[in-house]
């Protein structure tokens, strides 16, 4: 290996064998990332779901175009591997209505219908995925959602779930706009302020500017070990006398000198400090002379040199790093005004997931539960232990209704398969849908919803691991940054080291690793292989994701880069993953 230690490995994406020899005839029928491959019936034949396909020419043409797009998507997943062809289901099926009437858990009533419309309603792309009236949109007059009087208590009866409209009626939000919606949702509400002792403030965000409570330094101090002198030399001194840091104020008569330590308060009327190596002490005569000319004020740190009382030291929104803690302590603080970390619950969905051991009998290991909690902590969140709910709509409804978190992350179940319960459950709870699908690959069936006007927010991640990472950086990261008061990740661009194929219509997020430029050239990023929706091998070796526009980019093109939490450019957080 040379350079970054990865050149020459099989992780890098050359892209030359993208389409060669692979059978793309199978279709991935996705349940938000948990896939089963099956053939797609042609127009006018029975599909795997048991429905009859369209027979008119226009519909047949549309199905053919969709099949072509799916083939391209599947081929993209084969970059660096020819072993599988994951894709995405593009229809939404009707889900069951979860919930029971009059449920009580731990003495509390579940959330009822949230007010419809409201902030964020204008960001919903296109028509609602549900038939009107919908809990996600303004209710029609006389509908059940509009029948409750203003100020009436929430009902425990979940709303009936309308039959979803076809997936094609919902337009995925452009990737850039989806991130903007998530960031705006995080900044939308009033921000709480807590005062944290210095030993608890690390990694939090300052809620207020940090103003100096004292001058720094608070008095004139010596910048060096040496001699404090007054007036012109030579100077007399007393053997054994000296000033140490923390000592009391003293006076220094003209023509005298006294030993002084770095950081010690200089006596009144001190002309200068002479460094020990520049002074000559005649012990017999008790006279001090200097080998160099003395300049008034030399090696003295005057009071207020760094700041004066009331000066702003750092602005609100600053992440509290070890250096900020040191500055705050020096400026007189015992506690800091901070924004509380957003509290996050993680709900892992899927009956097919194992918590331990090797995959067997159609069961696979849960990769997202172990990955999400430390990743979210690195984004500044306080995360509870992940809860595995399986494919249980009622368990999901109860977990959402009684969560006291600021953000709830779900994994899987965001598509339209028979056990994809996220959309029906959100509709039954009266949630407001802010983002319903994003034009990005992998991960387009991600969603962002708000259960009530004052939260919590729900981020629905697809079940495929890399697709979930895409949703994490597209929706969860900007949402959590807003809730925590953190500055948004600074966008920057880098040259891509190789050609990167693109999706015909959507943005693509591709794992990359930074490589130092050679011979004075610019730094570059190299795309990594194993970047299919179900793969983590590429992202495990990456330090960023390249934002590849529709159509792809050629080698040497600048692309936007999203740093991963462990990348050096990321703002410091406590232990990064602890």
UniProtKB/TrEMBL annotation:
It catalyses: adenylyl-molybdopterin + molybdate = Mo-molybdopterin + AMP + H(+). It comes from the Bacteria. Residues 1-12, 38-57, 139-150 have a biased composition (Low complexity). Its cofactor is Mg(2+). Residues 345-482 form the MoaB/Mog domain. Residues 1-168 are annotated as: Disordered. InterPro entries: MoaB/Mog-like_dom_sf, MoaB/Mog_dom, MoeA-like, MoeA_C_domain_IV, MoeA_C_domain_IV_sf, MoeA_linker/N, MoeA_linker/N_sf. Pfam families: MoCF_biosynth (PF00994), MoeA_C (PF03454), MoeA_N (PF03453). Keywords: Magnesium, Metal-binding, Molybdenum, Molybdenum cofactor biosynthesis, Transferase. Residues 151-165 have a biased composition (Pro residues). Its EC number is 2.10.1.1. Pathway: Cofactor biosynthesis; molybdopterin biosynthesis. The keyword Metal-binding applies. PANTHER family: GEPHYRIN, MOLYBDOPTERIN BIOSYNTHESIS PROTEIN. Catalyzes the insertion of molybdate into adenylated molybdopterin with the concomitant release of AMP. Belongs to the MoeA family. This is Molybdopterin molybdenumtransferase. It comes from Streptomyces bacillaris.
């Amino acid at each position: 290996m040379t350079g970054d230690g990865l050149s020459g490995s099989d992780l890098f994406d050359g892209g030359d064998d993208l389409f060669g020899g692979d059978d793309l005839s199978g279709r991935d029928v996705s349940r938000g990332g948990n896939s089963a491959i099956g053939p797609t019936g042609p127009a006018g034949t029975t599909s795997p779901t048991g429905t009859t396909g369209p027979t008119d020419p226009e519909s047949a043409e549309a199905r053919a175009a969709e099949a072509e797009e799916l083939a391209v998507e599947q081929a993209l997943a084969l970059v660096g591997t020819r072993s599988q062809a994951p894709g995405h289901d593009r229809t939404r099926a009707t889900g069951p209505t979860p919930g029971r009437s009059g449920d009580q858990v731990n003495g509390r009533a579940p959330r009822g219908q949230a007010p419809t419309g409201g902030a964020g309603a204008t960001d919903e792309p296109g028509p609602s995925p549900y038939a009107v009236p919908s809990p996600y949109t303004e209710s029609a007059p006389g509908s059940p959602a509009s029948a409750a009087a203003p100020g009436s208590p929430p009902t425990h009866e979940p709303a009936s779930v309308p039959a979803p409209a076809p997936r094609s009626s919902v337009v995925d939000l452009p990737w850039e706009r989806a991130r903007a919606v998530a960031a705006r949702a995080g900044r939308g509400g009033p921000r709480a302020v807590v005062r944290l002792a210095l030993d608890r403030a690390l990694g939090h965000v300052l809620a207020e500017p940090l103003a100096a409570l004292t001058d720094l330094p608070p008095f004139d101090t010596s910048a060096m070990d040496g001699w404090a002198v007054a007036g012109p030399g030579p100077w007399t001194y007393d053997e054994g006398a000296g000033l140490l840091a923390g000592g009391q104020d003293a006076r220094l008569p003209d023509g005298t000198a006294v030993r002084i330590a770095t950081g010690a308060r200089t006596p009144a009327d001190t002309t200068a400090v002479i460094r020990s190596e520049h002074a000559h002490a005649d012990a017999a005569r008790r006279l001090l002379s200097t080998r160099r000319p003395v300049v008034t004020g030399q090696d003295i740190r005057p009071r207020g040199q760094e700041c004066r009382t009331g000066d702003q030291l750092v602005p609100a929104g600053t992440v509290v790093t070890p250096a900020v803690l040191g500055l705050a302590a020096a400026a007189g603080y015992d506690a800091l005004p901070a924004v509380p970390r957003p509290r996050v619950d993680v709900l892992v969905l899927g009956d097919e997931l194992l918590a331990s051991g090797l995959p067997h009998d159609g069961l696979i290991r849960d990769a997202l539960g172990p990955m999400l909690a430390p990743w979210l902590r690195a984004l500044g969140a306080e995360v509870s232990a992940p809860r595995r709910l399986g494919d249980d709509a009622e368990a999901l409804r109860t977990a959402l209704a009684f969560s006291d978190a600021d953000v709830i992350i779900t994994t899987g179940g965001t598509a339209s398969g028979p056990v994809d319960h996220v959309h029906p459950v959100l509709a039954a709870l009266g949630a407001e849908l802010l983002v319903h699908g994003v034009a990005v690959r992998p991960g387009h069936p991600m969603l962002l919803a708000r259960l009530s006007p004052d939260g919590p927010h729900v981020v629905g991640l697809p079940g495929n691991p890399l697709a979930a990472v895409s949703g994490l950086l597209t929706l969860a990261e900007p949402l959590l940054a807003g809730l925590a008061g953190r500055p948004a990740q600074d966008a920057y661009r880098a040259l891509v080291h190789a050609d990167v194929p693109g999706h015909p219509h959507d943005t693509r997020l591709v794992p990359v690793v930074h490589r130092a430029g050679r011979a004075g050239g610019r730094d570059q990023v190299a795309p990594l292989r194993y970047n299919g929706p179900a793969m983590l091998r590429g992202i495990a070796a990456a330090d960023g994701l390249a934002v590849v526009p529709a159509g792809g980019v050629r080698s040497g093109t600048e692309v936007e880069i999203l740093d991963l939490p462990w990348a050096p450019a990321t703002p410091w957080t406590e232990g990064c993953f602890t």
